[in-house]
Structure formats: structure tokens, C-alpha cells
Amino acid sequence: xxxxxxxxEAQRLVSTxxxxxxxxxxxxxxxxxxxxxxxxxxRLLAGLVKLLWRHPVxxxxxxxxxxxxxxxxxxWGLTSIAAVVTVPGLWFTLxxxxxxxxxxxxxxxxxxxxxIYRRHWQPVMIIxxxxxxxxxxDYLPRLLSIRCTSWADVVTVKMLSGQAVKxxxxxxxxxxxxxxxxxxxxxxxxxxxxxxVFPRRDPLATPMPAVPIPETASVGPVRVxxxxxxxxxxxxxxxxxxxxxxxxxxxxxxxxxxxIRGLLPAVRAGLVEIWALDPKRMELSFGxxxxxxxxxxxxxxxxxxxxxxxxxxxxxxxxxxxxxRNHTPTVDDPFVLVVVDEVAFLTAYQSDKxxxxxxxAALATLTTQGRAVGVGVLAALQDPRKxxxxxxxxxxxxxxxxxxxxxxxxxVLGDGARDRGALADHISPxxxxxxxxxxxxxxxxxxxxxxxxxxxSDADIRAMAEAVAA
Length: 470
Ligand SMILES: Nc1ncnc2c1ncn2[C@@H]1O[C@H](COP(=O)(O)OP(=O)(O)OP(=O)(O)O)[C@@H](O)[C@H]1O
Description:
Residues 219-410 form the FtsK domain. The chain crosses the membrane at residues 33-53, 74-93. ATP binds at residues 246-253. The protein folds into 3 domains: 46-94, no CATH class; 111-201, Threonyl-tRNA Synthetase, Chain A, domain 2 (2-Layer Sandwich), CATH 3.30.980; 222-469, Rossmann fold. α2 runs antiparallel to α3 and α3 (74-94) packs across α4 (96-128). It contains 13 helices and 18 strands. The N and C termini lie far apart (87 Å). The radius of gyration is 31 Å and the shape is elongated. It is an alpha/beta fold and 470 residues long. Mean pLDDT is 87; it is low at 1-5. The strands form 4 sheets. It has a 10-stranded mixed beta sheet with strand order 10-9-18-17-16-11-15-14-12-13. The protein has a 4-stranded antiparallel beta sheet with strand order 5-6-8-7. A two-stranded antiparallel ribbon has the order 1-2. Residues 207, 246, 248-254, 283, 382, 431, 435-436, 453, 455 line the site of adenosine-5'-triphosphate (ATP).
């Protein structure tokens, strides 16, 4: 009651019970002005100390010119402002990376904390439903810190007791628009704390050329593109199976060809064999000479090739049994990567039931037993529905390129991936902006990573084929 009716208002309140003449008159305690002043002064002091503690550099930069102007006159104040502007300017011009690492991102974080996040925190939290206004008081999640990287703001938040990650994941749109960002992603920092990632710009907006062919022969992980944070996107192909899903024109070819490109030195060294199934006869036929005899286009040939891969797998399993549990690629036992473009042509859309059964059985056998003996599958498809691809869960690593519908994201990346910010259905259909852009969810981590595959042009593929033939 006191909180609802501050000051003298409570004094005027009179209430009675409905059946009696008992009169309620709440007691009003008058707070001496000095107590109020002391409380406000204490809060101000605590706020200043907190500000200094959290943002020492920014606070000194603002406070020093003011202090100098007060104690030594306005000339000193002006000179220090000039120094504050010139020194960082010079530093920025002469050595940008160290300026950004040591000062630039921190200053930006301070500015964005004050101007964007603190300013909008209360209304965004209340309107999105993440905070509550109860009995005259706001109960808000706590904004703990903000860190700026070259492309995003990472905001650390302490949830209200009783909140779940899903409460936040359900409101990513409100958070993004509330704080003026294009999107928002959420991940768990530790119990009760979350990281919210608000991109300021899209570092993957421009296509990137094919990654240079590695100099050493290796079965991976191979670099196939770049991650949103600027780190190389390394794709593991040996010891796993990879499913690439994307609508037509999403850039499945660039993932497949970038992976093959990264394995090229190992192919030349005889440590890797790439077996290609190309039922559309478009994508892989372009570099056909890379695959030698292990290329199939008709469904019957594809079934034969898959069964041959199963035979290799079973022969190795018999030989390795009791001797080794993992595969190390050698010239005698190379890593076999079975690449299938548009796998649905062979499984779902195949009219010959016999062939369909053979192909499905061979793919299921390879994906369940192949990885320990050095046989991996890299399959691409457009439609990830279970009716089309009933073995999609047998692929440990999945890549979602641009998808047509939001429900398809969880079908590819697993439950809750879209809630955590894997907006594969929002990737631009304009090839320059969105082809090759994808979300990846690895076996080891529930948080999807945004990536872009490098574009391997026809000329690059031709050069690769020539390099292998040479
Ligand atoms: N990584 C990329 N970066 C930039 N542009 C790309 C990239 N990948 C593909 N593209 C562009 O997008 C077009 C379509 O790519 P691609 O054929 O690989 O898509 P797809 O998913 O295989 O489509 P489909 O299923 O119809 O074969 C290409 O012609 C190219 O212009």
C-alpha cells in the first residue's frame, strides 16, 4: 500500500469493511528530509564507484578534461580534450588492430551500453514480457556487461529467478528490434546467465573466393569458408558424416566443392578417394575426371557404387576387428568420402522400388557403420522432411543453408536450433548476399554457428581436375 501510494496520498485513504462501520486509516510515517538526502547521496556515490569500476578508461577520458578545466583553467581543459581526440586518432591511424583491441571496442561497448542497451532496457524487457511491473516496482533481468567485437555486441544478462532460456529464445525478434539489431541469438553463459548476440553488420555479406588448395595432404578438418566471427570454417569429414540441406540455389555446390578442394592434396597422395553420386548430372559432372571410375549418375549405377562402398566398409571392418578401433588413412586403406548430390532423387523420388530399397539400405549401412573404418558420407538435399530423408538423424554434422520454411530449420539442425537463432529461413535468396551462407550445429555444441562457404567457380573446378590429372 505504501509503495502504491507514496507520500501524502496514503493519508487520504479511508476504507471500511462492507458490513461494519470499522474505519481503516493507514498510519503515515514522515521521513525526515535528511534521511532521503543521505539515501540519494549514497546511491549516487555507489553508482559512480560502479561506473568507475566497470568502465575505468571511458570514465577517465570524460572526467580528466573536466577536472583539469576546474583546477587549472579552461585552456588546460581544452588541451586535454584535444589530446583525448588526437592521441587515439593517431593510434588508430598508425596501428588500427592494437587500438581496437585495447581501447576501440571497449569505448564502443561503453557507448552502446549507455546509449542503446541501458536506455531501452526497461521498456524492451517490460513490453517483450521478460520483465514484470508488479505493485509499482519493475522486476527486470539484469544487464551485466557488454562486449563489442568487430561485427556484434555480446550482451551478458542475468535472468530473473524462474526464467528459462526458452523464455528468451521465444522473444528474439522483440529483442532484436527493440535494440535496433537485425537479429539476435541466445546462448547459455552459465547457470542463470545468458549471452545475447546482436550483430551490428553482416561480415558474411560479400561472397568469398575459393580457399587456396592446402599445401599438405590431410583428411581434415578442411577449410571450406569463414565463420561469422572471422575464424576459418573448418569442416570435419573424416570420422563423421555430413548432411547439407538447402533450397535450390542456396549454394550446396559451394560446400561440396570446397570440401573436395581441401582434400585435393590428400587425393593426389592417395590418402583419400572421392566417390561421387550425381543423379542430377549437373553439379559433380563438372569435375568428373577428379573421381575416375567412381562416378555414378543413373540410379542403377548409384546403387552399385553405394554397395561397392558398403563392401569396402565391411571388408575393412572384418580386417580391423580386434586390431584397431579407428581408421588412419594410408595408401592401402584410404579415407573414402562418398559425395551424394541431391540424395532425395535416389531415396524419395525414385520410382523403381527395388533400387530405392537398395540405395536406402546402403546409405543407412554406411552412415551407421562407416565412420570408424574410414568411409564417410557427404550428402546434399533440398527438402529435409522425414518422408524425403528418413535417415537424416544418422548424420552427426548438419549444415542448414537457406531453407524455404522456418520448420525445416529444426528438421535439419535439431530441436530448438531456430529458437537459438539459426534463422536459415531468413537467409537472403539473392545469390551475392545469401548463397553459401549457412548455420552449422556440431555434434559437440548446441549453439548454431553462422558461416559462409567459399565460392568454387567453374574455373577453379577445372584447375582442380587438371591438378589431379597432372
Ligand atoms: N558460396 C557462394 N558464394 C557466392 N555465391 C554463390 C556461392 N555458392 C553458390 N553461389 C551462387 O549461387 C548459384 C547457385 O549455387 P548452387 O548451384 O551451388 O546452388 P545449389 O544449392 O546447388 O542449387 P541446386 O540445388 O539448384 O543445384 C551459383 O550459380 C552461384 O552463382
